[in-house]
Amino acid sequence: FQELSRKNLQDWAETEKDLKKIFNLKNEVKRIEGYDISNIQGMEATGSMTVFENGMPNKNEYRKFKIHISGRPDDIAMLKEVIQRRLKHIEWPLPQIMLIDGGKAQLNIAVSTIKQLKNSTIKTIALAKKKNELFVEGRPKPILLKNLSPKISYLILHIRDEAHRFALSYHHKLREKNLVRK
Fold it and tell me: Which of 86, 125, 129, 146 sits at 20 to 30 Å (Cα–Cα) from 106?
C-alpha cells in the first residue's frame, strides 16, 4: 500500500506540474472541485460538488445541493446558486481549480460569482461536452482535450464525469422521493 501511495504521489507531482503550466498557476494544486447541475425542465434540480485531492477522489468531501430557485429551467442561475452556497462555507478548504461541466456561459457565471464572493486565486475552467472543449478563465479560445496529454485529459474527464454522476444520482433520488409522495 505504501508503495502504491508513493507512486501516486510521484505521478501527481508530474501531473501537478503539467496543470500549473497549462493553467498558468504559481501555487501548488492540491484540491480540484468539479461541479454539475442536473434537472428535467427545472424539476427537482440538483447540483454537485466533487473533490479530488492530489488527483484522487475524496468522496468524504463531496457535497450535493438541492437547488432552491424555481421557475423555468435556468442552468446558469442554478450554477450561480450552487457556487454561491459553496463559497459561503468558509470551513471548507478552497480549491486551486474549479471545473464546471459546461461551456463559455457556465465559465463566465462561475468566474463572476467567485469574484463577487471571494478575492481568491481559484482558477476556473469549464468542459463543454460536444467537442470536449476546455474553456479556461483568462483565455479567449478553448483548448481541445485531445491536444492535452492523456493523463491531463483523463483527470479532467474523470472529475467532470464524477460530478455528473453524483448530481444525477441525487436528482434521481429526489425524483423517486417525490413520486412516492404523490
Answer: 146
Work out the pLDDT band at 177, boundaries 50, 70, 90: low
Which pLDDT score, from 0 to 100, does residue 2 have? Answer: 46
State the DSSP string of 62-79. -EEEE----SS--HHHHH
Q: Per residue in 98-149, pLDDT tens?
A: 999 999 999 999 999 999 876 678 999 999 988 999 999 999 999 999 999 9
**Residues 29/20, Cβ–Cβ less than 8 Å:** yes
Q: What would the grid cell of residue 103 be?
A: 461551456
- CA 128, 98, 92, 51 torsion-angle sign: positive
Run of H or E including 12: helix 2-22
Residue 85: φ, ψ to 5° = -65, -40
Give 161's Cβ-side CA count (13 Å radius): 7
For 102, which DSSP code? S
Identity of the residue numbered 147: N
- Say if residue 182's pLDDT is above 80: no
Residue 100's nearest CA partner among 128, 72, 119 is: 128
Which SS3 state, helix, strand or coil, does residue 156 take?
helix
